[in-house]
Amino acid sequence: MSRQEITYNKKMNFNGFEIESIVAEPSSQYKLFETEFKDTQARQLKIFMELENGLAFFDGSAFGGQVHFQFASQTPVQRWYPYREGYSIRLVNAFIKELNITANTFDPFVGSGTTLLASRMNNLKSFGVDVNPISVLVAKVENEQYTKEDFDTFGKEIENMRTLEKSENDFDTSFYLADRVFNKDILRSLLQFKYHIKAIESEKVRRLFFVAWLSIIEDVSNIKKEGNGIKYKNRKRTPTGYVNIEKGVWEQQNFPSNKFHFVKTKILKQLEVILDDLKFKYGRCEIKPEIFLGSCLEFEKYFSDEIEFSFFSPPYCNCFDYFEIHKVELWLGDFVSSHKDLRSLRISGFRSNTNALDKKLVTYKNEYLENLIWLFDSKNLWNKNIPSVVRGYFDDMHTLLSKIYQRTCKKGLVGIVVGNSAYSGVIIPTDLLITEIAREVGFKTKSLFIARHLTTSSQQKKELEPLRNYLRESIVLLKK
Ligand SMILES: C[S@@+](CC[C@H](N)C(=O)[O-])C[C@H]1O[C@@H](n2cnc3c(N)ncnc32)[C@H](O)[C@@H]1O
Prior knowledge:
Number of helices: 18
CATH topology of the largest domain: Rossmann fold
Largest sheet: 10 strands, mixed
Radius of gyration: 24 Å
Helix content: 40-55%
Strand order of the largest sheet: 1-2-3-15-16-12-11-4-5-10
CATH architecture of the largest domain: 3-Layer(aba) Sandwich
CATH superfamily of the largest domain: Vaccinia Virus protein VP39
Strand content: 15-25%
Bound molecules: S-adenosylmethionine
Structural class: alpha/beta
Shape: globular
């Protein structure tokens, strides 16, 4: 299919995914101002309808299973590190193929490097940026070129590790929560392995080992990543509320007595997975992507090439804090060694959560957004800074899209995987607002593929019921 034919008719095949053209949501599904709508809901709908003007909508439910990490955890290379906020290689691949992309690609929120993995499969030069040093490491390791010699050294180092005995030394960590997050002997074993890995001579092999080590931390710890943060596994929800099982008792019930052997087995298992993927040459790439640690709002500092296709998923405007969720790995992996370090990372990220807010000013103004913020019920906002997060988020989005527009070649394309969010009964339709900002900065065609609908907390459910179709994850497609 050629670039000019992006407008789809009825049902069509989008590189293996069935896509169907649909009409914008409210005109077909809602009768505006009927009595079942509360005033605030009718006002939201009116704003949404205005934003929908001129957009082409598609039922993209065929992409529903691809906008999250579910399949990635079984995909060679992508399974080296459980980056749960990632999407699938297949999704990016479908867009690259369907849109006939032949030149440079870019992911301003590289995460685990999925866009880059798909680009290199298609022999395209790619660029990626991320503020999280763990993402940059994972994306680099997964997109590295591994030679036969690297493969052999990797195999030898695995054998070395197999023979490693438990040390009686004490190992230090600056992680202030280490004693709560880990069993004492598991922590000591993890640290022993970290020092062992740091001494591996070959840089490429050392990094592979380090990613394997990072990837098992959650599994052998007392915490799990859940929702918007980390939760202790010994805190259990029961019908009558939460109960805390005493740390020592919980550890005894859940970990075997030989903790060193337990940790070693987990790392070795992960290393075998990597070895298998390398054996089948998944770790090969002809064109190596360029990946930078820093903010995408300054991506012009890192490279100056023109881009044909940007494909990415920004943080959603839902107060999810990426640094909170990766905090254990950041501390234990020595990416941060003080609260100050963590704070500077947090404020360097997109203003998608309250911890990312700094003294940065908001210069971008959007009337639709202001009208939605005006509908917030301030008594029911769980944090008084939410209006600042929402304004900051779209200010950052405006800066980014303007810069991407300038760098995109004529007729170049941008695909954005994004979810909408809600605060105090008001939906922030990020997908629609992005198309509005895109129009303002100069993008011409705008299509929206609705990939899946999202659920919300039970308190918000009733409040949002008539508008629930807007709680969704979409793929916005823009053309210059
Ligand atoms: C949804 S994830 C991207 C996942 C990625 N598409 C994948 O498949 O692995 C969003 C990423 O944006 C990063 N991020 C947040 N603010 C950023 C900023 N200002 N510049 C660059 N990256 C940022 C986060 O660290 C996170 O890795």
